[in-house]
Design goal:
Elements lengths: L17 H5 L2 H10 L1 H16 L8 H7 L12 E2 L3 E3 L10 H11 L18 H10 L3 E7 L2 H13 L4 E5 L5 E3 L2 E2 H7 L3 E5 L7 H7 L4 E7 L15 H5 L5 E6 L15 H7 L3 E5 L10 E6 H13 L10 H12 L4 H6 L3 H17 L5 E10 L8 E9 L2 H6 L5 E2 L1 E3 L2 E5 L8 H11 L1
Parallel strand pairs: 1-14, 2-12, 4-7, 4-8, 8-9, 9-10
Antiparallel strand pairs: 3-11, 5-6, 10-11, 12-13, 13-16, 15-16
Helix pairs in contact: 2-3, 3-4, 5-13, 6-13, 7-12, 15-17
The structure holds pyridoxal-5'-phosphate.
């Protein structure tokens, strides 16, 4: 068999060579962005399409560029118009501009663990720890783990992993998120679970009867994503603190101090003031920072316990990286986080934004109207809390089209409409939202 060679007039003879294509400015830029191998594969595929006669030889460079992604990661930014402030599937808290800048500063070589004055090894994460101590009145010590689950697991392992007991109310043996069950987590650390009371009612006397020489600590776990009402009773931290053993409060959301819109959400400062020795929480829920687990110690005993926990060998396996430390410090000490801004948003301002967006879209002949809406915290926090909001209502078919758009937009389908809720969207993104809707109209 012989391979058919193109005749001198065959357009396939005009297909540019790979090295010539890779010298085209757009493809040089793509190599810088994505790496040579990736771009070469796209070029080869485009050349093949030209050989097959699908595209003209002159179109090879443009064709190769078209199929290439904008960045070297497959993770894409998504506009959160769902009205859920902390959407776990969207990566929970969006970072502040200050935190993003901090990420950039920490991305290269940096002094995360070097004292530049002495040239000696420095304290890793000192800035983030200091920011947390400043932000939480009463916190004498702090440590940072990979996430909230890691912080709690570490406390259980370090203080009770040798088979000692963790006393907890049956009403708090909860499942909080996919794969996160408080009782299973506790037992996986080697600690023994000592449940007290009943599902709906637990009293101080139940705890008092269970506490003894085997007790490592009393755990108060916030049932973050559901509410129980009716004939219910739980015991507060202040009363438990009088029992003797340390009290550990897993508050979950990472609210550092109380927020007026969230009266039922426990906060770190409040838990410490009530007498908790240790507080564990997430960094990427209401705190509005990167994924992290906070461990805060209150009083002398809490400070000593933080020290014990962070020296426990397993702590090394849950250590956070420099990026987390930088972003967390900036989120705690810097300007208000986006989550905080969304939480504090004025509903009238949201309505005005929805009105403007709907008018702009209607001006293009798109069936858009501004409506009142109800947003929520999400991310396994503040269940049952309704946040007054405003949305742009579009025909339902937009939901799928917008999700497939560029940038993708996640709305909410309700009552046969696609609602674009503005509570969890920065005003700076309104223009992007309008363009995204126009693009799929
Ligand atoms: C969310 C939550 C956790 C888990 O925290 P992650 O940061 O998701 O690991 C633990 N406890 C409570 C009460 C929570 O709300």
């Amino acid at each position: 068999m012989t391979t058919a060679r193109p005749s001198p007039t065959d357009p396939r003879r005009r297909i540019p060579r790979t090295d010539a294509l890779l010298a085209e400015p757009e493809l040089v830029a793509a190599v810088a962005r994505l790496g040579r191998d990736r771009v070469k594969r796209a070029v080869a595929a485009a050349q093949q399409r030209a050989r097959d006669g699908v595209i003209a030889p002159e179109a090879v460079a443009a064709d190769a560029v078209t199929g290439l992604p904008a960045t070297a990661t497959g993770i894409r930014p998504v506009l959160n118009a769902s009205g859920v402030l902390l959407h776990t599937n969207l990566g929970r808290a969006p970072l502040s501009a200050a935190a993003v800048t901090a990420l950039g500063a920490a991305a290269g070589t940096c002094d995360v663990e070097l004292d530049l004055a002495t040239g000696q090894r420095g304290t890793r994460g000192a800035g983030a720890v200091a920011a947390l101590r400043d932000a939480v009145p009463g916190a004498g010590a702090a440590w940072i783990a990979n996430n909230g689950a890691a912080a709690l697991a570490l406390v259980c392992a370090a203080l009770a992993g040798s088979g000692r007991e963790i006393v907890i109310s049956r009403g708090q043996l909860v499942e909080i998120g996919d794969g996160f069950r408080i009782p299973e987590l506790i037992e996986s650390t080697g600690a023994r679970l000592r449940p007290v009371g009943t599902t709906n009612r637990t009293h101080l006397r139940d705890y008092a009867a269970a506490v003894g020489p085997d007790t490592a600590f009393v755990l108060v776990a916030h049932p973050s994503n559901f509410v129980v009402s009716g004939f219910v009773a739980e015991v507060g931290i202040a009363e438990l603190a009088g029992l003797g053993p340390p009290v550990v409060a897993d508050i979950g959301s990472g609210l550092l101090t109380a927020h007026p819109l969230l009266p039922d959400e426990p906060d770190a400062a409040g838990a410490i003031a009530a007498g908790a020795d240790l507080v564990t929480a997430s960094g990427d829920k209401l705190l509005g920072g990167p994924q992290a687990g906070l461990l805060l110690g209150g009083g002398e005993r809490g400070t000593a316990l933080v020290d014990r926990v962070r020296r426990f060998p397993l702590a090394r396996a849950m250590r956070v990286d420099k990026l987390t430390l930088a972003a967390l410090e900036a989120s705690v000490a810097g300007p208000p986080t986006p989550v905080r801004t969304f939480l504090d948003a004025d509903p009238a301002a949201l309505r005005a934004r929805a009105g403007t967006i709907a008018e702009r879209l209607a001006g293009d002949g798109i069936d858009a109207v501004a409506v009142d809406s109800v947003a929520g915290v999400g991310g396994g926090g503040a269940p049952g809390v309704d946040l007054a909001s405003a949305a742009v209502a579009l025909p339902e078919r937009y939901a799928v089209a917008l999700r497939a758009g560029d940038p993708p937009v996640l709305g909410r389908v309700a009552d046969g409409h696609c609602l674009l809720d503005l509570r969890a969207l920065a005003p700076a993104d309104d223009d992007v939202l309008v363009r995204a809707v126009r693009a799929v109209a």
